[in-house]
Amino acid sequence: MNGTVALSAADLQQVTPATGIFTLIALLIALPLAGAAILLLGGRRTNRWGPYLGVLTVTGSAVLAIVMLVKLMSLPTGSRSIGQNLYQWVFAGSFKVNFAFQLDQLSIVFVLLITIVGTLIHIYSLGYMAHDVDRRKFFGYLNLFVAAMLILVLAGNYLLLYVGWEGVGLASYLLIGFWQYKPAAAAAAKKAFVINRVGDVGLSLAIMVMFVTFGTVNYSDVFGSASHASQGTLTAIGLLLLLAACGKSAQFPLQSWLLDAMEGPTPVSALIHAATMVTAGVYLIVRSNAIFDRAPWAAGMVIAIGIITMFMGAIIGSAKDDIKKSLAGSTMSQIGYMITAAGLGPIGYVFAIFHLLTHGVFKAGLFLGAGSVMHGMKDNVNMRMYGALRKVMVVTFITFGACYLSIIGIPPFSGFWSKDDIIHAAFERGTLIGVAGVLVAGITGFYMTRMVAMTFFGKARWEDDAHPHESPKVMTIPLVILGVGAVVLGMALLFWGNIKTWLEPVTGLTEAPTVIPDWAIMTISLACVLVGAAIAFVMYARRSVPTTAPRGSWLTRAAREELYGNEVNNTLVVRPSYYASRVLNWFDARAIDGFVNGLGGFTGAAGTRLRRMQTGFARSYALSMVGGAVLVILALVLVRL
Amino acid sequence: MNPIMASAPALFTIRSVDYRAISPVLIILAVALVSVFVEAFVGRSARRPVQLVLVFGAFLATFIDLITLHATRLVTAAGSVAVDGPALVMQGAIILLAALAAMLMAERMVDPSGDPFAARASSLPGSVDEAEFSARGYFQTEVWPLLLFSVAGMMLFVSANDLLLMFVALEVMSLPIYLMAGMARRRRLLSQEASLKYFLLGAFASAFFLYGMALTFGFAGSVNLGSIADAVSAKPSQSGLLLLAVAMLSIGLLFKVAAVPFHQWTPDAYQGAPTAVTALMATTVKIAAFGALMRVLYVAFGGIRWDWTPMLWIVAILTMVVGSVIAVTQSDIKRMLAYSSVAQAGFILVGVIAVSGKGLASVLFYVIAYGFATIGAFAVVSVVRDASGEATHLSKWAGLGKKSPVTGAVLSLLMLSFAGIPLTSGFIGKFAVFSAAIANGATWLVIVAVIASVVSAFFYARVIVLMFFSEPTEATASVVVPSAFTTIVIAAGATVTVVVGIAPQPLLDLVNNAGLFLR
Amino acid sequence: MNVYTPILILGILAFGFAAFSVLTASLTGPKRYNRAKVDAYECGIDPTPQPEGGGRFPVKYYLTAMLFIVFDIEIVFLYPWAVAFDRLAFFGFCEMVVFIITVLVVYAYVWRRRGLEWD
User: Fold this and answer.
1) 587-606 in A: which are within 8 Å (CB) of B?
2) pLDDT, tens digit, for every residue of B90-120?
3) Which residues from C are below 8 Å from B when comparing CB atoms?
4) What pLDDT score was predicted for residue A9?
5) Given C56, C84, C101, which is nearest B129 (Cβ)?
6) Which residues pair with B332 in a beta bridge?
């Protein structure tokens, strides 16, 4: 990146109107949406068959998506961007926004990830939620989520993307709070909602700035005219989009909701808070590559945020004893990788998406595996109460193991290929970024090994009434599929699917020389991972694990407290706004009255007598109106001066 | 030469009045008179059905009349009435929303005693008389002529092209509402207090308006908005008087839209007034007040917009921030909705500040979308009750969504619309208003507005959380099954909110084709 | 600006008179306060009597006063019409009839609701 901006490929690829199978793009969304509508509005009548309908709609979408992929692959490279315009949504003067979808190389991979992983998680939920009285509603919400997420990735313009963006937020909110009788779940839902709204400010402002600058919010038009906008405007849009991405993808400084969100049912954590929704920020940045390519400063901020979160997530993941929260920290960290890669520009976009796909599969596998363990351990999430489960939960252990090897990046598992590519791209940009990537890879090796060791190895530290057992078939079959995915997906995408050339027309792809030779980078990072893993294995599999957590070092304690993210939020945002509200309220209700009383003291006997004759507070309201009148007059006069 | 003598004969020249163009207002006024007549001569038991037929008949006739008039663009009655696009659109919206509010007023299934209004407004709260009137089953029907007069005032308010007529319309609109605000059947002291406060402060604000009018006349020698505009562009240097005039007129109108710092009557009046009347205040009055505010500022003082936009900036920011932040701490749903309405007024002011055709259209869109959502919300509030009447304290709403999922879902939808979540009308409205403001360079204002709307999302979400994410307690209120009247209002509010959110085009076309103010 | 000079002078005079009266009264008058002195005074009746045990308080006086004002103003409107009767011709006549009818309706209402009866 030396000042010159290569015209990214997105500017060149034309959107062709949908024909044939592609006229059914809307059906991809309509199926789960109809499922959600039937399940949520149908009431108790649908209790019996509702969950199966929920599975069926998503499966239908998945099948349709696969057919579309096959068809898309048969098209020539330049015409793989399909647009379908449903109707003119908003039209005011020169401002037009269509309810239009755009299916291209980037969105189809997301659609596949969402629908296929979604289908597996729906099936898994049949078993996991079998005993929940409200499971019809659960599947309704899941369907709603899938529909919203599909809108997000299939939207042809930013406004429709915003619809999906808010939709997934809403579904996520409903699902985090699904077990609302747990106060922690309700609180977590609210927290996720509020923090996500902060990110949404960024997105909505970005859209408005785009609209004012370009007169349109369609992808193709915005990207086409991005080169005409000023550097300042593009940087502003980029930073606003980054803020949005931080909210949705739990990146620093808006990361704190993700760990709390683990209060939701485990399939939700797997689908929404690991595989799909939290990666929406990555999608947003990669989709907006034409803007970030021309706003290097914003892109630099993206890298910085990515690296900070990468470390934060990994450190938190290393200290948590709650298996889900540890995985959530890991998710933050892995998304940090993707965000960093996306910030690298055309040398990294493809790898961000590549890692996103492999991560989506192996992280879903890890979460579902954790769910399976919890299922066998009476919903206990404390890893200190696990141990030696490899013998009683064989299928879970093997699939979890495959996903584990994938996430820490052992060749030839999926994660190896994608993470290695990102680290490589990071070194292309700057050695320091690359070193950060390698270090976090080492920490990843540590915390994932710690998790596996505490759960499956060592001595059994089960509670007395725990009788761990393997989960039913309906849960293990999705595990097996995801486990196989964790093994082969990386190679499949890289060598058979040719992910780099596939995505290049949308994102562009350039390569730059690195200071350190390729083989050395790979060796160093593998060595780092193995060292981290070895330390963890010695600490947690060889030595015995105490069932109550030791006090630990300051770093451990800080990490357990999620690096004080909540305290920072409370001190900087929550408490000041609470007090501001209190003060304003007090002022509104009483201060003016007090002012009147105070004033009365000065104006002597006549004033006091006048005041005594008045009752009620209308006088103070009137006084504040006079104050307002003075303000209005001053504002008018001062402007003139 | 004596100027008074020279102009004297002109005072008595017969000006032509286009009765066809002002027929919507005339219909309402005529029916209002008939309605008073009915109060005088029709027997007690027959009054209600007759009044209902009259009121809804008048609304229907007026609405049809407005549709046939939709292409009319003229100024009539000696330049004092402008029948233009924005006026017609707002009149149509006022009629529709007033009809919905009238349905809430006509509801008799919700309150066990049969009527939302006091049997006799004159009886002392808690007195023997009051008990006796209730026991005898008296119902009052005076609200109907009051409603009609008020609606006539609103319709004139948005099309008055003359400060004097605007003032008369303002009073015709306001006085009946002050009265109706004090007529609640339950919690009468609260209701009367609300009425008195609203009246006193309203009179105070009217005085400001009147004073501004006098100053304007001193400056321009006319109260006609067009002539004022001419005077403003002719002698912009003599501005001291003019600025004071703009300030005074703005204060009078900003009071009616409930902008900070002229908002303090809002929570008290909203909380105390019968919910049906609150619904009327929160929707139609807001539309009328914004219509008049924009007409005065755009038509008469458009030439010195650089003088008053900074003032509106300050007011808008204060309104959005104070409204949103204070709403967070409210524990009564009607007070919360009141502060929410303050905050929403701030968002609408952002569109007013755009001072452009786009801004005007976006404000029209916003107030209409907001009006339907608001009237739906108040309708929901009116059916959530416990033994003491309406259960407005939020603690009684805990777990309501579980007891009554449909009611909870509808209110959640409306709350999401207030918060500006996509696929609801509120989202399109906010987007239209904000983008109009950005297009006119008010980027920082919009940033504040978006942040305020995030804060506001918090308290809207709080209601949803309370209804769906907490367990019902013994104190949780229950939802009374209302008659078709309230059901229609709730359904209309929810339907418009969703339909306008998904397919906003017809409404956008309507407000965009309305064009600009005539002068 | 000289057009406004008389207005300004009038304003100063009016304010000065009010200030002068209030000040002189409070400076020179004896200061013996009692309940009656701080009460609002209107035509010799207690403005807000509270009957024991609650009940209606009489608003007869206000009602009559207000009705008087309404009809008084009606007359004020009739004068200029009478002066310009010739020039306003039939149009003016019709408008005045409409005006009088509106007041008549109100009159009918007040009459039927026994607003004109003292007891």
Assistant:
1) 588
2) 999 999 999 999 999 998 888 877 788 887 7
3) 4, 53-57, 59, 80, 84, 87-89, 91-92, 101-102, 105-106, 108-109, 111-113
4) 44
5) C56
6) B393
Annotate B266-324 with DSSP letters as a single string.
HHHHHHHS-HHHHHHIIIIIHHHHHHHHHHIIIIITGGGHHHHHHHHHHHHHHHHHHHH
Collect all residues with Cβ–Cβ distance below 8 Å to A394 and sequence separation of at least 6.
Answer: A470
Going by C-alpha positions, the residue among A93, A243, A209, A82 that lies closest to residue A156 is A82
Interface test with C, best of A609, A611, A614 (most C CBs within 10 A): A609
Cβ of C26 within 8 Å of Cβ of A613? The answer is: no
B39 and C113 in contact by Cβ < 8 A?
yes
Q: pLDDT (tens digit, 9 = 90+) per residue, A334-349?
A: 999 999 998 888 888 8
Residue B444: its pLDDT value, please?
A: 86
Q: Map out the domains of chain C as residue ranges.
A: 56-112
The ranges assigned to domains in chain B are 18-513
Instruction: Say whether residue B10 is in contact with chain C using an 8 A CB cutoff.
Output: no
How far from chain centre, in Å, is Cα B409? 25
Reading the block at residue A55, the tokens are: 């599975």
Q: Return the DSSP state at A542.
A: I
The angle at the Cα of A535, spanning A534 to A539, to the nearest 5 degrees, equals 115
Q: Are B455 and B445 in contact (CB under 8 A)?
A: no
Of B254, B329, B454, the CB nearest to A582: B329
Interchain CB distance below 8 Å, B37 and C108: yes
Residues near B274 by beta carbon (within 8 Å), at least 6 away in sequence: B105, B116, B117, B180, B181, B183, B184, B185, B191
- Measured distance CA(B322)–CA(B329) in Å, rounded: 11
Residue B157: band (very low, low, confident or very high) from pLDDT cuts 50, 70, 90? very high
pLDDT digits (tens, 9 = 90+) for A362-393: 988 898 888 888 888 777 778 777 877 788 88
Q: What is the residue-averaged pLDDT of chain B? A: 88
DSSP string for residues in B322-351? HHHHHHHT--BHHHHHHHHHHHHHHHHHHH
ipTM: 0.81
Euclidean distance between CA atoms B213 and B206, whole angstroms = 10
pLDDT tens, C50-95?
555 555 566 677 778 888 888 888 888 888 888 888 877 788 888 8
**Where are chain A's structural domains?**
567-640
Query: Is C28 an 8 Å CB contact of chain A?
Result: no
Question: Which pTM value belongs to this model?
Answer: 0.80
> What distance in Å separates the CA atoms of residue A449 and residue B219, rounded to the nearest whole number?
83
Comparison of pLDDT for B418 and A490, the residue scoring more:
B418
Query: How close A633 gets to chain B, by Cα (Å)?
Result: 6
Q: What is the pLDDT of residue B237?
A: 65
Angle separating helix axes B333-353 and B286-295, nearest 10 degrees: 20
Determine, for residues B329 and A581 on separate chains, whether the beta-carbon distance falls below 8 Å.
yes
Q: Which two tokens stand for residue C27?
A: 């400076």
From the list C57, C88, C112, the residue facing B40 with the nearest CB is C112
Task: Measure Cα distances from A531 to A417, A444, A455, A538 in Å.
Answer: 19, 11, 20, 11
Residues 6+ apart with CB under 8 A from A431: A515, A516
**CB–CB contact C40 A609 (8 Å):** no
DSSP letters for A491-535: HIIIIIS-HHHHHHHHH-------SS-HHHHHHHHHHHHHHHHHH
Looking at per-residue confidence, does A42 or B25 come out higher? B25
- The pLDDT value recorded for residue C1 is 55
Superfamily in which the C56-112 domain is placed by CATH: NADH:ubiquinone/plastoquinone oxidoreductase, chain 3 (1.20.58.1610)
Say if residue B193's pLDDT is above 90.
no
pLDDT tens, position by position, A599-634: 333 333 333 333 333 334 666 777 788 888 888 888
Residue of A nearest to C22 (CA): A606
Host H or E run for residue A131: none
